[in-house]
Automatic annotation (TrEMBL), chain B:
Membrane topology: Multi-pass membrane protein
Transmembrane segments: 42-62, 74-95, 107-133
PANTHER family, sorted: DUF202 DOMAIN-CONTAINING PROTEIN, FGR18P
Regions of compositional bias (Low complexity) in chain numbering: 1-10
Places the protein is found: Cell membrane
GO cellular component: plasma membrane
Record bears the keyword Zinc: no
Residue ranges occupied by any DUF202 domain in the UniProt entry: 33-99
Keyword Membrane: yes
Region called Disordered, residue ranges: 1-31
Full protein name: DUF202 domain-containing protein
Length: 84, 134
């Protein structure tokens, strides 16, 4: 989550160089960080209870969403670079 | 003669959800420490991917007086593509490792490691050639 927040702040730093398209990157990375922040308490609770009963279900949805966010950020970044 | 299964006294395991049943079929839940370690490794790859994405945009934004435009754009796109591939590859790797652990099979080789090494070497070679040629 903190890596996504840091990256979204770095994207904002490049607003003067790339203009408004960079706001899309900022929005996606901020939204991903916010989603992680809002769900982390539930996921922590699920994991800690799972450790206590020695059975943790793999959080496949979170993994797929995080990877999807990375792919979308990359695609948007390529679009920004090609449009510059 | 019937072919019915004997009734089991054990309760059926709780449903893992449709996506999990589809992508991680069969086997049994591995040790929770291994599942969480697999997730931490996935997150480490995601951090690498984010660094590459940020680096790709940085090269495009801040090296205008250092590199020619085609070199600059090429390097930026290589880094961004690599970041995308790492992000998707990290999820695939997580899935393959999770499947292997569920089925008590040997862990798969990490295919994203040679990808990262080759692309890093390519980017370094492009920069080296450019610096020597300049």
């Amino acid at each position: 989550m903190m890596a996504l927040v840091t990256v979204s702040a770095i994207f904002l730093r490049w607003l003067p160089a790339h203009g408004f398209p960079i706001l899309l990157l900022f929005a996606v990375s901020s939204a991903a960080a916010l989603a992680i922040y809002l769900t982390q308490r539930r996921r922590y609770s699920t994991s800690s209870h799972g450790i206590a009963r020695e059975n943790v279900d793999a959080d496949i949805t979170a993994v797929l969403w995080t990877a999807f966010a990375g792919v979308v950020l990359g695609a948007l970044g390529i679009g920004v670079v090609l449009a510059a | 003669m019937t072919n019915s299964q004997p009734a089991s006294s054990e309760p059926s395991p709780p449903s893992r959800g449709r996506i999990a049943e589809r992508l991680l079929p069969g086997g049994e839940e591995p040790d929770p420490r291994f599942t969480l370690a697999n997730e931490r490794t996935f997150l480490a790859w995601i951090r690498t991917s984010l660094a590459l994405l940020a680096g790709g945009i940085a090269i495009e934004a801040f090296t205008a007086d250092l590199f020619l435009e085609p070199v600059r754009k090429g390097l930026a796109i290589v880094l961004l593509l690599l970041g995308m591939l790492l992000s998707a590859g990290a999820a695939v790797r997580w899935l393959r490792v999770e499947r292997s652990m569920r089925n008590k099979a040997p862990l798969p080789l990490p295919l994203i490691v040679p990808l990262l090494a080759a692309a890093g070497a390519l980017a370094a070679a492009v920069v080296l050639v450019f610096i020597l040629w300049r």
